[in-house]
Prior knowledge:
Elements: H1 2-11, E1 16-21, E2 24-29, E3 40-42, H2 50-61, E4 68-72, H3 79-85, E5 89-100, E6 114-116, H4 121-134, H5 143-150, E7 153-159, E8 162-169, E9 176-184, H6 193-207, E10 212-215, H7 223-227, E11 232-241
Parallel strand pairs: 9-10
Antiparallel strand pairs: 1-2, 2-3, 4-11, 5-10, 5-11, 6-7, 7-8, 8-9
Helix pairs in contact: 4-5
Amino acid sequence: MSALQAYVRATAPIGRDAERIGPFLATFAKDSSHPMENYAIPDDGAKPSSAEIALLISAYRQRDLRPRLEFFTEAAPDVEATLVAAGFTLERRVPVMTCSVEDLVDCDAPEHIQLREPSSDDEFRRLRSVQNVAFGESPEVSDADVERNRDYLTVLAERGETIVGGGIALDIVSGATEIVGIAVAVEHRGQGIATAITAHLTRLAHERGAETAFLTPGDVGIGTVYRRAGYRVAGECVHLSLS
């Protein structure tokens, strides 16, 4: 888990402001107050003091943001209890799943579904809109969102000219990449499309130099989708916040 936590620590500041606060790397989105885009990561083995936690809280409060952390428990096993004692609450605990080149299982999409990389900003925008809706957010997509996604390895699933889902592989750093945003429109679920997207995207990431791909499913049940593509649970990730 330390290697994967180091990956997150290296990639989380990309496109964000970042500040070192005691044993924490605090990140702040430049154009969004969404909790999932504003969070801190503890150092491996961190044992934060009350004063350091207070400074972290202040940094987020000063920006009108909820103090939040996301981290792999195995990399910093003492931090969760310390934060809970300081008033933080557990938002969720999710598995961390990994897939090596050897573990990947190729999964074909249904015959009526084509998987490919987007070829225009319009396709990036339409894919992001599908992802937003799938995750319960607004279908509106800003130019900044399109710009951010353009630099990542992205796969879309389409039926005819309609984009029905997709996913993203983030930067490859030290042989690792994170798979995010796997989504399928509600009316097209239950056909194996999400598994096919995951397998295809992971295959492309491996071909471009990633030895290990990892992801954190939104809930335990959805993990079955990723297991079919060869992903296995390797640890857990916790999200904690202070109201």
